[in-house]
Predict the 3D structure of the following.
Amino acid sequence: MAKTFGVILPAAGSGVRFGEDKLMFDLLGKPVLWHTLWAFQRASTVSRIVIPTRRESLCFVRELTEEFSKVTAVVEGGKTRGESVKKGFVALGDVDYVSIHDGARPLILPEEIDRIHRNALKYGAVCAAFPVHDTIQQVDSDGFVVATPDRSALMAAATPQVFSADLYRRACVLTGDYTDDAGMVAAAGGRVKMIPCQCENFKITTKEDALRAQQVLLRRQGN
């Protein structure tokens, strides 16, 4: 029997660095979140989608998602990203795998989502990632270099991050300040496989990122 993938798209951030709610920012006539939803709606492996968002955005997001049949719930998020994702996990219900993707990464492609999900079937826990090309310096509290890690052993975590539901459920009981779900699952004893993803799967954090995303979308449209 085919395995079910439930997707959580966290959309409860404050957008402080962006200056406004970046998920509602217009990209070629559609909000950033719409473009993210478009990719997951069309991914063949996706069974259902849940979106945790801010209380004041609930009505807008529910209206936005009406055209996406795979969206099964829009719920109020928590005070932190971790809390929002856990609320989304509860709302997903019974699935075999949970796939967590930043709502502010609108350039993911359906075929890439399916590829990463297929890797999750093989490894149980995977994280989309970028190879590190720059030299990374580890510094002390005063800003002085103390070590130069081998960049061939470094990867920058992105999303989707995908885990078997049982593994993720066990990891959710942990307490601590984890910057992403892959780190939380690894802390719970899971082995997370890093899966290289295309460089256009970047997160929109600033207005410059939004302009860059717009240029990518125009190129994809042949403009």
